[in-house]
Amino acid sequence: MRSLLYSINVTLDGCVDHAGSGVIPDQELHERSAATIAAADALIFGRITYQMMEEAWRPVAAGEPADWVEDWMRPFARTIDGAKKYVVTQTLERVDWNAEIIRPADLEATVRKLKAQAGGRLHTGGVRLPLTLVQLGLVDEFEFVVHPAVAGRGPRLLDGLPAPLPLTLMGRTDYASGAVALRYAAGISA
Asked: Which of 29, 32, 69, 134 could form a disulfide with 25 if both were Cys (CB 3.0 to 4.6 A apart)?
C-alpha cells in the first residue's frame, strides 16, 4: 500500500502562495524538492498547480533558455519533467507531460485505488486539492518547508479545514537558508 505525502513551502504566517510571499527556494531546497519528487511513484496535482509547473519547468527540462533559471535548477526541472502525474480537473480535456486526468467526481475512488497499489509514496502539492484530500482522509504524511519570511497576505495553509488536524512530528531538517522542513504523520501517536 502506498502513502500520500503533502509537501508545500510555507511562510511563518502560513502563506502558501509563491507570488509575493518572499519565499525563494535556493539550491539546497531545489535539491531537496528534486529528491522528494524523484522518490515518489507519482504526483497528484490540481489543474492550477499542474499548469504552473508545466509552464515553468517543461521548457527548462527541454533545454530551452530562460533568464530566471540557474544551472542548479535544471536537475529539478528534469526530475519533475520525468515524473508520472495525475491531474485533477473538470475543465481540461487532455493532458500530456506524463500525465493522466482524474475527474473531481472520481477523486476519492481513484486516489484510494492508487494508494492500494504496491509501490512507493504518492506526492501532492498545491493549495486547494490538498485541502480536499485532507478532508477525505487520504493524506498520510505532511511536509511543511517553513521559510523565514512573513508574507502578510495570501492563501493560507489548509485554510478552510472544518476541524483541527492532529499531527505527529516524524522529523525535521534545518537548512542554511533558515528554512526548516517539518515532517508529520496524520493523527496522534498513542
From this structure: 29
Sign of CA dihedral 80, 82, 85, 91: positive
The one-letter amino acid at 99: A
The Cβ of residue 61 has, within 10 Å, a number of other Cβ atoms equal to 17
C-alpha cell of 88? 485533477
Q: At what angle do helices 107-116 and 128-135 cross, to 10 degrees?
A: 70
Single-letter amino acid code for the residue at 161: L
DSSP, residue by residue, 118-133: SSS-EEE-SSHHHHHH
Residue 42: all three cell numbers together = 507519482
| Cα atoms in the Cβ-side hemisphere of radius 13 Å centred on 132 | 16
Enter the C-alpha cell of residue 102. 482524474
190 confidence band (pLDDT: 50, 70, 90): very low
Model confidence pLDDT, tens digit, residues 38-92: 999 999 999 999 999 999 999 999 999 889 899 999 999 999 999 999 999 999 9
Residues 6+ apart with CB under 8 A from 21: 11, 15, 147, 149, 151, 154
